[in-house]
Write a structure and sequence with these properties.
- This protein is 35% helix and 24% strand.
- With 339 residues, it is of the alpha/beta class.
- The strands form three sheets. Strands 1-4-3-2-5-6 form a six-stranded parallel β-sheet, with helices on both faces. Strands 9-10-13-12-11-14 form a six-stranded antiparallel beta barrel.
Length: 339
């Protein structure tokens, strides 16, 4: 298996193997994506070929309309890790540029699927589009498959509770602080990653020290408020936590940046400069302004009690997915993939 963004390496691999490829952006690697990849695995297996996934980076909207046009659910590294959970996929990463966006549907097929990848089969979702301004649709891809001699499979939408699973729906749920329902559509809990950076140390003065976790602001953040959190440290140890996402309105401070402030329960130690991963519960409450620090401290005590019940629910949800909670996090102490 290879993971590569090198055109020469990708081309050489394609020349030596029968390529069956899944197409899409795969943000979140949700249940719909998983169904698509299962079809790709099946098609490759039926034909003694190599199952592959083609990723375009960055997202087309971010190139055409600006980086603020869309917040990703996952970083590229996370998407690669989530895809590899689904099977022995080779993953090819190509840059999405304005020049790429200007390709006609047939030019995309000829230049990339045929010339570069020499595909034997292609699998797409029901709403896949390609080529300039999304002019190409699944019926067009089937036409090109018939014309140029490669198989095309289209995967039907995955329906959960009478709703089509999509990255758009999942983003909305996360923006509303509904992380547990988002996990139902993803088929796994949503994980945030970041390094602990220096904060204002106010939590320690109030008796509940916090870790200020630096989360990439190009990723989609949940609604501001207080959450329960399962946290995995660099050593792979799990901790229960209460996490405040937002700007901490009670604290008067100039130029405040939004942050993930995590108070780990029953923990003593130094987490500064450590990499943490966080799975959040549903939002316990919105952020609010307190009259004084005593009132804030009392509320944090109540938040801790509420969080414990929610955390138990999240752990049971992960087990229902068929994966122990600790396996839902990304591999610890690994440098990542060669991208």
């Amino acid at each position: 298996m290879i993971v590569s963004s090198d055109i020469m390496e990708i081309g050489n691999f394609a020349k030596k193997n029968k390529i069956y490829i899944a197409l899409g952006y795969f943000d979140g690697v949700h249940l719909g994506h998983q169904a698509l990849m299962a079809q790709c695995l099946q098609l490759a297996g039926e034909n003694q070929g190599e199952p592959c996934v083609l990723l375009l980076e960055p997202h087309p909207l971010q190139v055409l309309e600006g980086m603020e046009a869309l917040k990703n659910l996952n970083s590229l590294r996370q998407r690669i890790a989530l895809i590899r959970r689904q099977g022995p996929f080779n993953i090819f990463v190509l840059p999405f540029t304005r020049e790429f966006a200007a390709l006609s549907p047939e030019d995309f097929v000829c230049n990339y699927l045929l010339e570069l990848l020499q595909v034997k089969g292609v699998v797409t979702g029901f709403n896949y589009t390609f080529g300039s301004k999304g002019a190409g649709h699944c019926s067009d891809l089937q036409h090109f498959g018939d014309k140029y001699g490669f198989q095309v499979r289209q995967v039907a939408p995955v329906i959960v509770k009478n709703e089509v699973v999509s990255s758009t729906v999942i983003r909305k749920l996360i923006e509303e602080g509904r992380l547990e329902k988002a996990a139902q559509y993803l088929g796994h809990p949503h994980v945030y990653e970041g390094k602990v950076v220096d904060g204002n140390h106010l939590g320690s003065l109030l008796g509940f020290p916090t870790a200020n976790v630096d989360i990439d602001q190009q990723l989609l953040w949940p609604a501001y408020g207080v959450y329960g959190g399962w946290i995995m440290d660099e050593d792979g140890k799990l901790h229960k936590a209460v996490v405040n996402v937002g700007i901490r309105p009670t604290i008067q401070q100039a130029n405040k940046k939004p942050s993930f402030e995590a108070h780990l329960l029953n923990f003593a130690g130094d987490l500064y400069d450590k990499q943490l991963q966080i799975i959040l519960t549903d939002r316990l409450r919105p952020e609010q302004t307190f009259d004084d620090f005593a009132a804030l401290k009392n509320q944090v005590s109540r938040d801790k009690e509420n969080a414990l019940a929610y955390l138990s629910r999240v752990a049971k949800q992960a087990e229902a997915f068929g994966t122990p909670l600790e396996k839902c996090f990304f591999p610890c102490n690994r440098p990542g993939y060669p991208i």
